[in-house]
UniProtKB/TrEMBL annotation:
Residues 472-491 are annotated as: Disordered. The keyword Ribosomal protein does not apply. SMART domains: GAF (SM00065), HAMP (SM00304), HDc (SM00471). One of its GO terms (cellular component) is membrane. One of its GO terms (biological process) is signal transduction. This is HD domain-containing phosphohydrolase. PROSITE patterns: HAMP, HD_GYP. One of its GO terms (molecular function) is phosphoric diester hydrolase activity.
């Protein structure tokens, strides 16, 4: 805190900063103006020098073109001369006149000549001045030198002679050259020209005979002879001398080898150290040599260690095989002498003006402070999310006033954005969310209509999901709009823009251009509209829909205000938030669909597991919801407070679908147990086999007695009586096994008497059984075979010990109150056959009833949201009774929710009327309702709900959908209500 306080002490008010800054700026302005004037003057001078450089380039190019172009034409014509094509040297004298005329027409030509494959040469050279005649030792009147070299293959010799002619081409003198070493075939001009059909140009060099600087142009004729022309470049030096900008300017024209070809002081080209070669640039001027050494990328300004230079370099196309390079250097101090003078003059004028402007800084800063302080207070309010702070301070400065306007709009935008975000987040249902997104976006854009399209789940097609016109949501069935295919080539341009990656588009459309939007325009009464399209995309950038906003085109300037980039950007931001909300809702909807599918899959699997439950799990939800809807619509006092929310409806539906999910843990053979001795198979067959053994023993006893001489009549009578008794006893046992009627005491006594019959087992019953059963058999003593056993036995191995995990703690957290049998299974034969009612033993009845315990445990373990937290209570209460004698918690009516009491009625009615149970006949409506009336009277089901079930005829609504026609019989509602103990 101390550092912060010290920092604030060092801070100064804004007007002090502005005054100081204004003073510094004024001082800086003077400096900048002076520097600017200097820089501009410098740039102008440098720009002018660049123009001079350009003029120099043009002049050099023009001089080279003037020198080369006529000679190229002349060479092309001379190669067509018959005397130039012939291979007979004596005929080449016919070229004299054409050569002379060409030399007279082109004063830059130093010589014209022709060489052939045999090494012959014919050359004509003009002698234009006395220096050349003296150099070539020609007569004073000579105007031309003709040099002829003839090589004879037969004679094996070389004839070389020079002939000197006057202006009329009369011979003045002739000189023969012995031991001639010149061979045109080895010359640089001959070799490339002989190998090509086009003209060739050599690099510049010093001519051997005249010591002139030039190049040679050569071209091969049709007869494989090569014509050459020596072109002098001495005129270029004069051109360079004419372009010296200042006294110290250095200019040079040079070739690719770095040797000078033209220089303002032409004499320096002829005084090089090696007279046979052109001088290096550094030999002419070290500064030029330094420039050339910098390479082709040298800057426009260069310092050579002594002086600053303004430099330029460029290529010249003609003048050699690879063209020429021109370099120019101008001393900067000579070039910018005027700029230096103007710089100091400008500095003095600027300083005088600055001294007059300093007082304005203080006044200006005071004018700026107050509006900025107001903006600071406004920003602090926005930082606190206080969007109600007034801002009325205006400023004479346009930018500050614009900032105030921008901040006001930002405040409105943020307030609107937070309001919309809060509104969107409050929606938990998809359809209201879409309407809210569309309506809020229309308000922001001040549009007259809006459409929202979303992608379909199974394709990229966009389907209309919402339409609002003039603030009113429209019925989509009466406002049909075709689906949009993003991949179609027939989409209008404004729509294609959204599918090509643009997040937003804005277009103005006439009625003819509107296409499918024409019905909307008709409702708006507009002939033209402005259309704003927003692409809705998810977190991965994938298009999930598009939002279209329609604005009337009134032709006023306010229309353009609605299409401002910042407004569209805000709409796009809101739409982005809406797109995320839509995506979240759709994801949540898909998750709910997946959950529903899994729930229905589980219910279907439970129903498919056993024919004894058939479609019970799928019909109970329908009947439960029917009864719940009747309660919600009822005006009875007991139901007037029952108005379930969407979440409560969902919880009831899920609970109804999962009310028997615990049956997945119930062994199938227990659920399907049709006889008392049935387990995985019906053990009556074992009992029958024992009776068969006893019957065989009766026959054995009969035949043994006959064999010992017994009376046949007495033995037969005793045998038949024994067989008849066995048949009767087995028939009784088989009848008991069915469990169709209740067992009386006499039945139990007879069953015990039959059980005391014995039979003899001669095989070990421990062979071929599982290790688990073998373990149970080890609890009884093993006897030597044969063993006498009871016909119906309860053996120790028939008892299955209940694991600790299956025991229910009386203090269990779920409140289960069940009497848990000692054994998990008791498969004793006499014990099972002695079951008084039905086919299930106490142990099996507990297993059946335990499914509701498993249902509660399974549903309680699910990580359900808060609004689904009562699913376990609803689903787990349908076997409870209003008097507290039900299971698994023995809840009374007041301890049960209304929904769980509804499900109890639905579960019972469906079970009574189901026609797809193989173990019983389905009840008619009157029979089922009569049984339920009795249950209501006995406080097994809720009386108020049963009365509602009867009065609103919910049973008939269900019957028309699920019952067979023959089950639907007349029902006396008043009589049933009376039977149930309820008033009509």
């Amino acid at each position: 805190m101390r550092n912060v306080a010290q920092s604030r002490k060092r801070q100064l008010p804004l007007h002090v900063h502005i005054s100081a800054m204004f003073t510094c700026l004024l001082l800086l302005l003077g400096l900048v103006l002076g520097v600017f004037n200097y820089q501009q003057t410098t740039q102008i001078i440098l720009g002018s020098s660049q123009k001079l450089f350009g003029y120099l380039e043009q002049d050099v190019q023009r001089d080279l073109l003037d020198a080369y172009q006529p000679i190229r034409h002349a060479l092309n014509l001379l190669t067509l001369n018959p005397d130039a094509v012939t291979d007979r040297p004596e005929r080449r004298t016919g070229l004299l006149l054409p050569f002379v005329q060409t030399l007279e027409d082109n004063h830059s030509l130093s010589a014209l000549y022709l060489g052939d494959d045999n090494g012959n040469l014919f050359l004509v050279r003009p002698l234009r001045n006395e220096a050349i005649r003296l150099q070539l030792q020609a007569p004073a009147q000579a105007r031309y030198e003709v040099w002829s070299i003839t090589r004879s293959a037969r004679q094996g010799g070389v004839e070389s002679k020079k002939i000197y002619l006057d202006a009329s081409l009369a011979e003045l003198a002739q000189r023969t050259i012995a031991n001639e070493t010149y061979d045109p075939r080895s010359r640089k001009w001959f070799i490339p020209a002989h190998a090509e059909h086009d003209q060739t140009t050599t690099n510049p060099y010093l001519f051997f005979s005249t010591h002139e600087v030039g190049t040679t142009l050569a071209k091969r004729s049709a007869g494989n002879t090569v014509l050459g022309a020596d072109v002098t470049l001495s005129q270029l030096s004069a051109t360079l001398a004419a372009h010296q900008v200042t006294p110290g300017t250095q200019i040079v024209l040079y070739g690719a080898d770095g040797r000078a070809i033209a220089y303002p002081d032409f004499s320096k080209l002829l005084t090089a150290q090696d007279p046979e070669k052109l001088p290096k640039i550094a030999e002419l001027n070290p500064a030029l040599g330094y420039l050339v050494s910098q390479g082709p990328d040298a800057q426009r300004r260069l310092y050579d260690g002594q002086r600053q230079w303004v430099v330029t370099r460029f290529n010249v196309e003609d003048g050699g095989a690879n063209g020429l390079q021109l370099a120019m250097m101008v001393p900067e101090d000579e070039l910018l002498a005027d700029a230096y003078r103007l710089r100091w003059q400008g500095a003095l004028v600027t300083l005088a003006a600055l001294l007059l402007c300093l007082p304005m800084g203080w006044v200006t800063s005071r004018l700026l402070v107050k509006p900025l302080q107001a903006l600071v207070r406004e920003a602090d309010a926005i930082r606190r999310f206080d969007f109600n702070y007034p801002l009325k301070q205006k400023s004479i400065v346009l930018e500050i006033d614009q900032l105030e306007g921008s901040m006001s709009r930002m405040k409105e935008t943020l307030a609107s954005f937070f309001e919309i975000t809060s509104s969107l987040s409050a929606h938990t249902r998809f359809e209201p969310l879409l309407q809210s997104v569309l309506l809020e976006t229309i308000k922001i854009a001040q549009a007259q209509a809006g459409l929202i399209y979303l992608t379909q789940n199974d394709s990229r097609q966009l389907e209309l999901k919402g339409l609002i016109i003039n603030g009113q949501p429209q019925d989509l069935t009466t406002q049909p709009q075709p689906d949009i295919d993003p991949d179609s080539n027939d989409n209008p341009p404004w729509l294609q823009g959204l599918f090509q990656g643009h997040d937003s588009v804005a277009h103005s459309l006439s009625l003819e251009q509107a296409g499918d939007l024409q019905p909307i325009m008709a409702q708006l009464g507009s002939q033209s509209i402005h259309l704003i399209g927003i692409r809705l995309h998810n977190r991965h950038g994938e298009t999930v829909g598009i939002l279209l906003l329609v604005l009337n085109d009134s032709g006023s300037s306010d229309d353009q205000d609605h299409l401002r980039a910042d407004r569209i950007a805000f709409i796009q931001a809101v739409s982005g938030t809406a797109a995320v909300s839509i995506e979240s809702q759709r994801l949540q909807a898909r998750q709910k669909q997946l959950l529903d599918a899994l729930i229905q899959l589980l219910a279907g699997a439970i129903d498919a597991k056993s024919p004894y439950t058939a479609s019970h799990c799928q019909r109970v939800p329908t009947l439960t919801l029917m009864l719940a809807q009747a309660a919600a619509a009822s005006q009875q006092p007991e139901f007037e407070q029952y108005n379930p929310s969407q979440e409560q409806w969902e919880a009831l539906r899920i609970a109804a679908w999962l009310h028997d999910c615990g049956k997945v843990t119930t062994p199938e053979y227990v659920v399907d147990k049709a006889t008392k001795l049935e387990t995985l198979y019906d053990r009556i067959h074992e009992i029958r086999t024992r009776f068969e053994v006893l019957k065989r023993d009766t026959w054995v006893d009969y035949w043994q007695a006959r064999a010992l001489g017994g009376d046949d009549a007495q033995l037969s009578e005793r045998r038949e009586a024994s067989l008849a008794a066995l048949d009767q006893d087995f028939a009784f046992v088989a009848q008991c096994n069915l469990g169709g009627e209740a067992m009386q005491e006499a039945d139990l006594e007879r069953l015990n008497a039959i059980a005391r019959r014995t039979w003899r087992r001669t095989l070990d019953d421990r062979l071929g059984v599982s290790w688990e059963e073998n373990k149970r058999q080890s609890t009884r003593e093993e006897h030597d075979l044969p063993v006498t056993e009871q016909l119906l036995a309860d053996k120790p191995e028939h008892l299955f010990i209940r694991p600790e995990a299956d025991l229910i703690d009386p203090e269990n957290p779920w409140g289960f109150k069940l009497e848990v049998p000692q054994y998990k299974f008791n498969r004793g034969e006499l014990y099972n056959l002695s079951t008084r009612r039905g086919t299930l033993t106490n142990e099996e009845r507990y297993i059946i009833n335990n499914h509701i315990v498993q249902t509660i445990l399974m549903l309680s373990s699910l990580p359900l949201p808060a609004y689904l937290s009562n699913i376990a209570e609803i689903a787990g209460g349908h076997h409870e009774k209003m008097d507290g004698t039900g299971y698994p918690k023995r809840l009374k009516r007041e301890e049960m929710s209304l929904e769980s009491r509804m499900m109890a009625i639905a579960d019972i009615f469906e079970a009574l009327t189901a026609s797809d149970r193989p173990y019983k006949r389905s009840k008619t409506l009157s029979e089922a309702l009569s049984i339920m009336a009795t249950m209501c009277h006995d406080a097994h089901i809720d009386p108020q709900l049963f009365a509602l079930f009867m009065r609103e005829q919910v049973f008939m609504q269900y019957a028309r959908q699920f019952l067979d026609p023959e089950q639907i019989d007349p029902v006396d509602i008043d009589a049933l209500m009376l039977k149930a103990g309820l008033s009509g």
